[in-house]
Amino acid sequence: MKTYVCQICSHIAFDQAPVDCPVCRMPIENFENNPDAVKKPADPENLCAEDRKHLPVIQVNRECSLNQSAGYMDVHVKIGEIEHEMTSEHLVNFIDIYLDKKFIMRTMLTHRRIHPATALRLNVNSGTLTVIGNCTLHGSWMKRVNLSSPFTA
């Protein structure tokens, strides 16, 4: 899978660069193909402390709290099973969420009075949810879950 990074806002696009960035609206010329754009654990079976602070944790709840209709689900995301620090020098500055490799939202974060987490309500029954958290010092970290499988990842 190819990864393209917007040089303006650090948005990551999969497979091909978009005509215009969905986050900052800059043209395709601002995207660079970067196969190392997303960090991965050296050993996914034995995560080190850095991995455990940066990999997104995704909880999918099929019983939506606001809409009881079929097809809705709540998704809660936090960055790291060990909570990431949020200082002015070292923080998770945004969380991007994709459905089937298509960007659907960005949550911008600041270092004061906020935890590196976000939530959303989806009106889907299946697909692959991808979450990318961006650390100002350690780059972008990604986790994927299949929405057809009920579990926390």
| Structural class estimated from helices and strands | mainly beta
> In CATH terms, what is the architecture of the largest domain?
Sandwich
* Relative strand content: 35-45%
CATH level 1 name of the largest domain:
Mainly Beta
Number of domains: 2
Question: CATH homologous superfamily of the largest domain - what is it?
Answer: SOR catalytic domain
Radius of gyration: 15 Å
Using the coordinates shown, work out and report the CATH topology of the largest domain: Immunoglobulin-like
What does this structure look like?
- It is a single chain.
- The longest helix has 6 residues, at 49-54.
- This protein is globular.
- 27% of the residues are buried.
- The strands form 3 sheets. A 5-stranded mixed β-sheet has the order 4-11-10-7-8, with no helix packed on it. A 3-stranded antiparallel β-sheet has the order 2-1-3, with no helix packed on it. The chain has a 3-stranded antiparallel β-sheet with strand order 5-6-9, with no helix packed on it.
- The chain has 1 helix and 11 strands, in the order ββββαβββββββ.
- With 153 residues, it is mainly beta.
- The protein has one helix at 49-54, and strands at 3-6, 12-14, 31-33, 38-39, 56-61, 72-79, 92-99, 102-108, 117-123, 128-135, 139-146.
- It has 2 domains: 1-36, Rubrerythrin, domain 2 (Single Sheet), CATH 2.20.28; 38-146, Sandwich (Immunoglobulin-like).
